[in-house]
Design brief:
Layout lengths: L5 H27 L6 H35 L3 H24 L10 H33 L2 H10 L2
Helix pairs in contact: 1-2, 1-4, 2-3, 2-4, 3-4
Length: 157
Amino acid sequence: MDFNRHISRRLHEEHEATLALWGRLEQTLAMRGAKPPTEEDLRLVRDCTAQIADEVTRHFAFEEKDLFPLLAASGEGDIAGLLAEEHATIREAARRFGELAQPSADLQARWPEARALALELAERLVSHVQKEEMSLLPSLEDLLDEETDQALAGSYV
């Protein structure tokens, strides 16, 4: 879908980047199976850890603070509530994943746990992004006027 609003396009671009990175991790893990990780696998896990940390802080916080109230005020409170619940679930899984992937953690020794959690996160993120792409972003296209869109885009850093 093509988006006309600045904020919708920015969020869409971030969603695409999230799907690409986590899709790459999911594919890598599926190909390797239960084999121990390579150094390249560990780098990819750490890249995903950094990305998800940004996702659950900056991206989620912006949606929860600035966008979900707009949805709720327009009668779309159910979808805003569902997306917020998913944020909480993803945030907790990301926290656990981040702990496993810390440079001080022995990721090799905890690989089965990290692998399972990475696959869970990938699945949750894909599902969540799909919901936002099909509901949140199209709703924003309808709800926002140019001035509000500009203000939101300017405040989202």
